[in-house]
Each structure stands twice: as C-alpha cells, then as structure tokens.
Amino acid sequence: MAELQDIDFTLEYPYTRTTGPIIGPFLTGLRDGQILATKVGDRVICPPLEYDPDTGATVGPENLVKVGPAGEVTSWTWVTQPTSKHPFEHPFAFAQIKLDGADTTMLHAVDAGSEDAMSTGMRVVVRFRSERLGTINDVYFVPGDEPPEAPEVADEAEPVMITEHLIGVRIREPLQPHRRRFAEGLLAGKIIGQRSPADGKVHVPSRGYDATNRVPMTSEHDVEVADVGTVTSFTEIVPVQYHGQTETEPYIRCSVLLDGADTTVGGIDIRDISVEDFRVGMRLQMVWRDSGDRMGDLDNRGYGLNEEVYERWEPTGEPDVDPESLKEHNF
Prior knowledge:
By secondary structure, this protein is mostly beta strands. Helices cover 7% and strands 37% of the residues. Strand 6 and strand 7 (106-110) form a beta hairpin. The longest helix is centred in the N-terminal third of the chain and has 13 residues, at 20-32.
C-alpha cells in the first residue's frame, strides 16, 4: 500500500500582459544589452516608472536614459535554498542595487559564489544571459566593475510589446487528521465518512466538522460507507485547451450519493458510459484499483474521491432511484 505524504504541490498559471510605453523599452533594452531608467525632475528612477511618484504626472518614453552597467549594493540577503522560480539553481543573493547614474535602487540577483563575497557597499556589474526573451531575468549581477560584452541581437528582433510568464505558488501542508484517516481508508479499500453527533447525518468526505450544526467530528464519529451509490447530478465536459490541459475527449462529471451517506461525493469523472445512457438516479459501483496500484494523493480541500484509488465506475444493473427523491442532493 502506498505511503501517505504531506501535501506538496504547485499552483501555476500563465500571465500575459502588454508592456506599455516605458516597461516595453526597458525590457527591450535588457534583451538588447542596456539598462534604461526614467528621468523624472531631478531624479533618475530605475527600474523606470510610467509616472512621477511625487505628482502622479505621466512620464513618456522621451524621459528614458541609460544607467549602469555597474552599481553599488545598498542592502542584500542571501538565498540558501533556491526554488524553481528563482534565477539560479545554486545559492545567490538578492540585493538592492543603486546603478551608476540612478538615484533609486533596483532589486535584482547577484551571483556572488558565496555569502562571504557579499557586503553592503560592494560594487556589482550586470551580465547578460546568452538566451534572452525580453524579461527581467535576461540579466543578473556579479561582483566587480568590468563592463559586460555587448550581447548579440538578431536583426529581425521586434520591440518587446507582450510579456508572458508563469505565476505560481508552492503549497506545502500536512493532511488534517480527518483527511488522513479518509485517505488511509481509500488505500485500504474503504470509504470513511463521519456521522454528525448533532443530527446523525453521515458526511462523505468529511470536513472534520458538521457545517450545518457547527459541531466538530473526531475519529469516534468515523463510519464506513458503501462503494455503491446513486447519480444525483451530472454534466458533460467538453475540454477547453489551456496551459497544462491533458484532457482531449468529452466525458461526464457527476455527483454520487453513496449508500450509507447523506452528502454526495462530487467530481467523479465517467469515461466508459455514453452521455446518452447516463442519467440521474442511475446506480453505480466503484471498481477499485489493485491495492498495490492505489496512490495516496489527496489534499485538505477536496470534495471527492481520489481518482488514483479506482479504475472506473460502472452500472450495477439495479433499477434506477426515483430522481424526485434526490432533489435535495443536487449539486
């Protein structure tokens, strides 16, 4: 039987936006080997702004000026364990850098080699990556003052007018006790719900409390329910293609009221029954995977069964349940 692990996953999606009259040239400059700032009154601001921070007045591309390529570290912190979103896979520093010719600092990465090489007041200089896409990650900094070599720029390179990158957050947390017992039950071939001490209704899967009566439920309220149930509602899903989409063919997603439960299990995907033959009131049996093939992939927010513990759902052949009796379970 698979071992249950703490929750560890990344929620991620692509973010696309136009760059505008100031950030566009700034990103184009990074790609093409220069750092641009905006001259606003008596100050030179880098990274550049599209407005005067004191008055709110619009700042146009005519206010762009070159700064750097070197500067001074005014503060810094050392990153000992980089994540997938960081610019390096090895330890590095994030530093506030006041570039030569600028009056403000820019936060960026310094590839210093070791924490001992970093200090406030040290000089750093920009380096341009060999592959550049017109993003802030096209550059980084290293200790020293030696100017970088001018990067090669394709003759047909267009100004950067659109920027796209992945927004993501890594979520790590332990399974809550009631969810761990639920997951352990699935791995053992059992579906565990919880009976409310307030009204006796059985919740599957449980949230660890009866939300209607506002009472907590503990392990003493655990009960096993059947792996057979009744379809209470369904819809046909026609997959829309988006970043990370793996589905290609239409399928059914339904909710099932398991025998012995008073709440439905949602998000059950049906791929072996046609939508023409599927209906509310239909009786279904869950077909478990072999015990050695079941996976304990579960989080604290789900309302369904872990699809990695069963192969499919199939009709039992029993007479349908009257849909009128299922109205309160529609979801």
